Amino acid sequence: MVTAAGLTERAKSLGLPVTKNAFTGTVDEPVPPLPYMVYLMPREETAGADDMPNALVAEDWQLELYTVADDEAADEIRAEIENKVLYDVDYVKFVAYIDSEECFQTAYEVTGLLRKARKQG
Question: Among 12, 13, 90, 95, which residue has the fewest nearby CB atoms (within 10 Å)?
């Protein structure tokens, strides 16, 4: 079963800088240079019977790739993401230029990843 945690580990194995939600730069540790990736967990929903100790959690997971340009180098990174991270899940992909950041964002959205969770009771 593919999980959000598993996809995150796959993304980290690509060797690019990756963080959850956003990089926060400081003087001592600035934001890494492009390209880098950010992953998000925008939604989580639990399901299961009230009297059962186990529940299923459906998670949405999003991976954002930030690059200087929408060029061959970015295409190679996208191919790696699609072939090494997302090869066994359905996803929606879109590419957009972000004026305020002067970079391109490629976002991959994966919905409905299931994992088991124990209910407290």
Answer: 90
CB 118 within 8 A of CB 53: yes
pLDDT tens-digit profile, the chain (121 residues) = 899 999 999 999 999 999 999 999 889 989 999 999 999 998 877 766 555 656 788 889 999 999 999 999 999 999 999 999 999 999 999 999 999 999 999 999 999 888 877 655 5
Cβ within 8 Å of residue 16, ≥6 positions away: 35, 36, 37, 65, 77
Could you tell me if 23 and 36 are in contact, meaning their C-beta atoms sit under 8 angstroms apart? yes
Alpha carbons 34 and 18: distance in angstroms, whole number: 11
Question: Rg of the chain's alpha carbons, rounded to an integer?
Answer: 17
Task: Give, for 54, the enclosing helix (H) or strand (E).
Answer: strand 54-67
